[in-house]
């Protein structure tokens, strides 16, 4: 299928599909005229890419995981589970950092509000 059809079938823009290909996440064959042609598995690959991006994984990690899917869904082989667990720990750390930053900002806002109302 051509890139426009893949875009229509997946709801992902042509620009993003090109980006996925440039990042090594999606493969295509080129026609003699230079047009991209994707295999029948491309919509499934795009759905997996979208799911992993929604899970907060960077494209470099997704590229490593793409060959390790089991079945037609988002289940992966056991050999990459530790990698995903590491990503989960990193997300937890970022969430904790953001929570601290939010609390600090709340303190600044609260102090500022008190200052303005007592003046």
UniProtKB/TrEMBL annotation:
The HTH merR-type domain is annotated at: 1-68
Q: Which SMART domains match?
A: HTH_MERR
Q: Which domain of life is it from?
A: Bacteria
InterPro entries attached to this UniProt entry: DNA-bd_dom_put_sf (IPR009061), MerR-type_HTH_dom (IPR000551), MerR_fam (IPR047057)
Name the PROSITE patterns for this protein. Answer: HTH_MERR_1, HTH_MERR_2
For this UniProt record, give its keywords in alphabetical order, as a comma-separated list.
DNA-binding
One of the Pfam families matching this protein, by short name: MerR_1
Protein name as annotated? MerR family transcriptional regulator
